[in-house]
Amino acid sequence: MYINTFKYTPKDVSCQLCTEYVKKLGCTALRCPWLAERIEAGVVGYREAVLETFPHERRLFQRLNLLIKHYPGSLWSNEQHERRMQYQCAVQGYRRRRDTNAYYAAMYLLTSNDDIYRRTANCFCKDGIEFGYQIRETRIWITRIRRHRIRIIPRN
Hints:
By secondary structure, the protein is mainly alpha-helical. It contains 7 helices and 4 strands. A hairpin with a 2-residue loop joins strand 3 and strand 4.
């Protein structure tokens, strides 16, 4: 098995190297075709990532600008949130079938608060997230997870 260890650098994702770049005109693309690679290299800021990801519609643009204006600088609620998420990722390891964007979204929500994390830490398993019981305090979080289409495995 081969594991790709290549990491993009800012030099690798320079706009001048892009197929959409024309010397006299600059970038001719409506949206950056290499946004994911540029994010990985660390050359894209929050504002550019948000504006490139969503369609350009006047009403949506106003709301996005409001979000960008009030962005605190990190997607983590605090340092403990980031540590809990990293710890849970390390404990669970990597499983290709389980590790979807929805799974990570659920993990992000369930690790955001210390109380919720303590109550749901034992729900993470090799197949996904398993809720064998319902917790009154976390009902809102479970509802959000279901909206993200997380596969919840009933306990036998």
